Amino acid sequence: MKLGKGKLALMVVVTVAALAISSVPAPLVAQSVGMRVAIPFDFHVGNKTLPAGDYIVYKQGDTIQLSDSNGHSAFVLSNAVKNPTVNAENQLVFSRYGEESFLSEVRWLGYSDARGVIKSTNEIALAKAFSGTSVLSAGLAK
Predict the structure, then answer these.
(1) Long-range contacts of 35-41 (CB under 8 A, 24+ apart)
(2) In this structure, are 114 and 94 located in the same domain?
(3) Which of these, 21, 46, 106, 140, is most buried using a 10 Å CB contact count?
(4) Domain containing residue 16
(5) What is the pTM of this model?
(6) Residues 66 and 130 in one domain
(7) pLDDT profile of the chain (142 residues), mean per 10
(8) 70 and 128: one domain?
């Protein structure tokens, strides 16, 4: 059976796409699924304040999205940073200034890069006012 140039080109494209998808490492696929975390304190994401609770965290490009089942959600820009805990569990890292907690990093199991959250103007002002910060983390929700 003879294939026309158009059908042959389509078969090549489909084959290359199938090979590309099948060669994607499992953690890359898992990262887009969403991480479920329990956060036991109120916190800031960008310029938004969210209450304590169970959240789903998604990464889409350079954006991190958090949402809970009560309609609370926030989006924030992020950039790639080194993940110091590549083989640890998924986790969120927060910077704390006085009583205020800000999401600062999102880490996925098996990734050498984490996502560092871009600081809001409010966080920058608090960081200047406080001499030190403490770091808090929230792990997987049960």
Answers:
(1) 35/90, 35/106, 35/108, 35/140, 36/140, 36/141, 37/90, 37/91, 37/92, 37/138, 37/139, 37/140, 37/141, 38/138, 38/139, 38/140, 38/141, 38/142, 39/92, 39/138, 40/138, 41/101, 41/136
(2) yes
(3) 106
(4) 1-25
(5) 0.71
(6) yes
(7) 50 40 41 79 94 94 94 95 84 90 91 91 90 71 56
(8) yes
